[in-house]
Write a structure and sequence with these properties.
By secondary structure, this protein is mainly alpha-helical. The chain has ten helices and no strands.
Amino acid sequence: MKRQLPVEFIYQLFSLFVAVILVHAIYVSIIRPNASAILEEQAIQINSNPSYVPERSAYVVVRDFEQETCFILMLWAMSLMGYKALMATREKKVMELDLIPLNQGTSILPEDTREFSRPIQALPEEQQSFLLPRALLTSLHRFRSTRNIQDVSNAVTTICESESDRLDSELSMIRYIAWAIPSIGFLGTVRGIGQALGQAHQAVQGDIAGVTQALGVAFNSTFVALLISIVIMFLLHQLQLTQERLVLDAEDYCDNRLVRHLQT
């Protein structure tokens, strides 16, 4: 576990750096030039034809800095969730291994725990740090020292509960990003309304172009932020479901493949 923390931290920083570079490059090269061209074309059409109704363009909706920040946070959160999902998938594959080889009707005595621990200890070091190998090894060691089946069952439950708490706490950064995205959208709304109020004197004189553009910033930023937040929360709940199933499957594996075969 100590070796995984620096790797995950470096991955978080690297994924944030890549998200900033990628999104900003797309905005500079594609979104903002197209949005500016569309706005200029619409201004020409409005001046030449007062009854012209401009169409809503996706480039104009996402062109502001608040939307860019929201997309950066979205990619960052997706990369973090992808890393967590990959780790859960790798732990899931360990459960397909026959870590406790037993024949039909075979029982495990306290004297046999050393022999049954060898297949688990032969796993690569990274796999030994996964939930299931740790739970099995702890259970076998507990059974050898206490010779009490109830203590083994309690040890399995304790390890699975602590793993569930750890997985839940590691999602705090993703939850913060999911909270920050709509907050940034509301900041864009406040900025747009402030700009609209600052140009109210122009609207009184009959020029409402600046006011409408500022209000567009306000509503577009909130719209994009809330839409992204819905996607992030859906993926987050799917990740939580995957992790909860992983813990439950590990506990069932220990109960069915180990605890029920113990005999004093």
